[in-house]
Amino acid sequence: MVREVSESCLDSLLTEVVSCYCNRFYPNKHDLAARRIEAIGYQVGHQLSERYTMERPRFNDHLEAIKFICKDFWLELFKKHVDNLRTNHRGTFVLQDNKFCWLARMSIDPLADSGKSPEDITSPTAGNKATHAMKMHLYFPCGILRGFLSNLGILCAVSADILTLPTCAFTIRIKA
């Protein structure tokens, strides 16, 4: 029996988790909220690693594990492959998803977000609240990737950058 979770339920859950941690539990401690959200993702990634690698042989190297994430794991999670994989062959990998589904329904409206007039849109603070909220949503998938790789014995740091909505790049830095 195949078990699946509705995408809309997962989207709503992620939105609610981010909202609760940022606005209710740690309203003035965004770093702590980010670490907690990432820790939840880490646990999910750790468990998903058990499920998706159970019947396959161990990976021979980091590149093989990253390729598995880009093809098989990403397909299971997001119903598509990673659009681009780059590496410096020294332990840094960049996975780019040109239509990351957890950002696809988000937008930045600097006027609505900042209360500024149209002339002030170019100011450095325009859109900061919306951009910050979107970045908070990326700690969960970063945690998933870190937890997945950690369960395979690969210690790493994972970060994410929003290039242009909904394009997202995940940077994985393998620790020696």
Write the layout of secondary structure elements.
Elements (H helix, E strand, L loop, with lengths): L6 H19 L4 H24 L8 H17 L5 E4 L4 E6 L12 H5 L13 H10 L1 H13 L4 E7 L5 E7 L2
Helix pairs in contact: 1-2, 2-6
Family: Belongs to the TRAPP small subunits family. BET3 subfamily.
InterPro entries: NO_sig/Golgi_transp_ligand-bd, TRAPP_component, TRAPPC6/Trs33
Pfam families: TRAPP
CA distance, first residue to last residue: 40 Å
What strand line-up does the widest sheet have?
Answer: 1-2-4-3
CATH class: Alpha Beta
Characterize the biggest β-sheet: 4 strands, antiparallel
Count every helix, treating DSSP H or I runs of 4 or more residues as helices: 6
Average predicted local confidence, pLDDT? 84
Number of strands: 4
How do the helices and strands follow one another from N- to C-terminus?
Answer: HHHEEHHHEE
Fourth-level CATH superfamily: Trafficking protein particle complex subunit 3
Which class do the helix and strand fractions yield? alpha+beta
What level of helicity do the residues show? 40-55%
Shape: globular
